[in-house]
Amino acid sequence: MRSTVAPGGRPAAVDPDDARPAAVDPARPAAADAGPAARPTAAAAPAAEAAVVQVYDTTLRDGAQQEGMNLSVADKLAIAAHLDSLGVGYIEGGWPGAIPKDTEFFARAAKELDLRHARLAAFGATCRPGAEPGADAQVRALVEAEAPVVTLVAKSDSRHVERALRTTGAENLRMIRATVGHLVALDREVVVDLEHFFDGYRHDAGYALQCVAAAVDAGAATVVLCDTNGGMLPTWVSEVVAAVRASTSGRLGIHAHNDSGCAVANTLAAVEAGAGHIQGTVNGYGERTGNADLLTCVANLELKLGRPALAGTGLADATGVAHAISEITNISPYGRQPYVGASAFAHKAGLHASAIRVDPDLYQHVDPTAVGNDMRMLVSEMAGRASIELKGRELGFDLAGQGELLGRVTQRVKEAEAAGYTYDAADASFELLLRTEIDGRPPRYFEVESWRAFVEHRPGGGQEAEATVRLRTGQGRMVRTGEGNGPVNALDHALREALVGTYPEIEAFELIDYKVRILDTQQGTDATIRVLIETSDTVRSWSTVGVGTNIIEASWQALTESVVWGLLHHGVEPR
User: Fold this and answer.
1) How would you label 493-512 residue by residue, b for 16+ Cβ within 10 Å and e otherwise?
2) CA distances from 334 to 70, 293, 484 (A)
3) Between the chain's N and C termini, which has fewer beta carbons within 10 Å?
4) 77 membership: H or E segment, kind and range
5) 156 CB burial (10 A radius; 0-12, 13-18, 19+)
6) Range of the domain at 264
7) Do 217 and 285 share a domain, yes or no?
8) Helix 427-439 vs helix 403-418: angle between axes, to the nearest 10 degrees?
9) How far, in Å, CA of 355 to CA of 337, rounded?
């Protein structure tokens, strides 16, 4: 009779005649009411594991399975270099022999990567049922990749063994032992990923533990317990890992998916229960809802639990690495990502700002610089004088003691936001507002006489947008016409044509993002429109906001402010 396991991972019954070893009961009844002190911790693990948690990155394989992600070999090499600079211990490069691109990656990595901290791991499966490892083509490909580490995926759920592998439990154990032993004999460090381990343990704890024992006895350096379906909760993970910890002296690892939203929590729970090795992906990439976000995991380990994880001072580069890899994958950074997101230490409420002015730690759980991030103040209708003062300091203005000025700026912000403006997403527009209040007028690079834009529709569906801008600079009156894909694009071209002779610096400015929002939808076509524009000069980017009764009016305001702010920060004097 197989054991059945309750949701907490506790085996309900084990047949004493079953040849498999009985599961260790993780219930620990004596500690049931002992509170947090009774939670399993890394103290139960060997001393070496308690000191340092191994960090194993699988962005290049498991992360690359995310929908819409397609990494070239060059992309993977670039990401690997960033991961090494972060200080991870292992970089899983892919599945050589099964995926041609991954085979090429390992061949090029040997020549092109100079890793200082990480060891490359080649991923593959155990030998096939009935086959010997030395005669298995996939196992040979793992050896030929010449990576110092080989990670084997193996079945640990008896249902998968019988239905997916279509073999017996005994044969699966032989496949694990034989393949691990073969690779260890070839001087490879072997990591065994026991897929569907937690589900398998809940179904048949005895067999799952036999799989752990088979890998450890054959010489595996680490046995990784995988929550492949991502459905576990932290208390369940804690109990199962503690039970496995009590059954083996081998190093245990955790590989968590995020389908229940608990991948990071499950990873930390596993470490506290005795795991000394974690797997995850940068930015939580992965199929379905993704894998455990490795950056969040290591930040929590080092900053909250005091567990060393990354080599050197890698954690201080976490934000830069997260954003650099986002650029390579062409997936926009998630602003609300813990620790490294742009909004992770952004404060909006006036009450927060008042306290932060006294002590930033009052409203921040860690120092942002510990992960390479920074605190930001968001200016909005919630802003008070403290928010304005701190935001001004962030932008380089010392407003301390200037109560009258702070009052004027605060009132202007509240009035503007009531009219539809949003300055928490448009720092450049806020700075121009602040400068106007400080200097009495905005920076004057040009004076606009008029502008117009129209779209001409032609038979057959074609259309053409044209805009004319009339303005004055120090060089006189300029009248220029521009064409574009739409009226806003045409206005952008016309404005540039009118200014480039006086201010050639604007040739470096490029509009990189454009967002439109209808604010009062009940007004229909008579609604107020808000436009947010992001501009870049390839070194930095800045955002401006415009509000109007039509989209072109709002866009024109945001466009002109983006040009003014860009010229100002390029040190250009009005000409």
Assistant:
1) bbbbbbbeebbebbeebeee
2) 19, 12, 31
3) N
4) helix 73-86
5) buried
6) 49-308
7) yes
8) 130
9) 24
